[in-house]
Amino acid sequence: MRHIFILITITFLLISCKKDNNPNTSADKPSEQKTVNLTVDGNARSFIVYLPIGYNNAGEMPLIFAIHGGSGTPEGMINIANFKTLADRDKVVLVYPAGIQNNWNDGRPTTPNQLGINDVSFFNQMCDYMINNHSVDGTKIYATGISNGGFMSSRLGCELSNRIAAIAVDAATIEATTIAPNCNPGRPVPAIYIHGTTDPLVPFTGGQMTAGGTAGGTVLSHFQAIDKWVAINGCNTTPTITDLPDIANDGTTIKQRVYSGGTNGSEVVSYVVLNGGHTWPQGYQYLNEAIIGKTSQDMNACEVIWAFFKRFSR
Fold first, then answer.
1. CB under 8 Å to 233, separation ≥6 — which residues?
2. What pLDDT is attached to residue 214?
3. Entry pTM
């Protein structure tokens, strides 16, 4: 009997050792970045997917679309607004999509607009792809972008609220002639708008966009965009106003206005960057200050946006 017990014990130890020598499927996988190609409405489209460290053990994860500006690229947007550190920390999937000819149909007369490209359909199909192929929580999909990508984020909030839980718009507002008048989402969409008062490309006060290199078009002012979402979401019209600490002494300051009390707990937040340019706070200064203005160092836009997004689900 004692020999049988010893034999069983040895067998168990051998099996255990064999398991230890095999790849441990419960161990956190390293992060992964890849390019995905799709055909949407007969057009070849692509986007970069970033899966955070440990995505295999994270369960269903939130997803952030980070949308490049006009003439930009997904790789350029990663440099300007690098969400990877917080994605690894909090287990968030990132998608950096590519526009047709490096632009988006945000309602203004961009190249994709003139070509009749349906970018809203592209984002809808990316949502389907990510939910079907990765562990993504379909109720926690968010959109943010700069400039042309910011205008596109506004459009997604207006027209894809059945997929997008909240938006964050930087250095942009809403196209004024077709998108804003017809913006009637089927649910409240929490929104952040960040805008520099000396943005040389997208006028803080709205109107006709005439600066060189832009697609033109007519856009809402920063506060017209805020008022639009405050009305849509049923928020309080009197905000709570806070001056953020001037931590950088870089010639900029930031005033936060929080419009709370919206339907289903929704909220709208304005960040006015005094003397700020066409830039992403604490992001990469992608062109000389003489061309795009100052990049404020007084807040980390990626962290602020994610802290806002994670409070909301669809």
1. 188, 189, 190, 191, 262, 263, 266, 267, 268
2. 64
3. 0.91
